[in-house]
Amino acid sequence: MEYGPGKTRTVEVVDYDPRWPEQFAVERALLARLLPDALAIEHVGSTSVPGLCAKPTIDVLVVVTDVGAVLERSAALGRLGYEYRPGSFAGDARHVFFRKVAAGRRTHHLHVLAADSPIPDDYRLFRDCLRSDHDAARRYAGVKQALAVRYAAERGRYVAEKSELVAELMARARLWRATGEP
Questions:
Q1: What per-residue confidence (pLDDT) applies to 1?
Q2: How many CB atoms neighbour CB 170 within 10 A?
Q3: What's the rounded Cα separation, in Å, for the pair 14 and 52?
Q4: 0.85 surpassed by pTM
């Protein structure tokens, strides 16, 4: 996905890159120094699932007691390359979003969530289920690849079109958590 004057935003899904966990670890170390009060800094999203194709953007989950305290550090996050995107999750004041763009491409998404939000648990559950349930991961990969081709220039549509499968897989993940079986 490219950004900037004259650039076209596209959806690109690529094969799993074994460097993604290391890229996350580097980012985690930077963020841990900047956000020492974080309760958790975790790798989530498709790049956190070994073998799963993904948009080549590292999704980072940061869980904090006070989201406002992180917003006060927006300038420092900006020095790390993170751009605050107000309104990305407009309906949820406990979820703030930053993105990092380098060379015209998104490299990282930073999801900062309050500890009392249910969303961190959903991110973790979805990741962990895809790591354990190879059939679910395979289905998800197939849909993502097909939608990336179909909606290459429509990021919002790409996300919307996979939401039904994501909801189905989340229901499966909740059952997996309750029973221990995929």
A1: 42
A2: 14
A3: 9
A4: yes
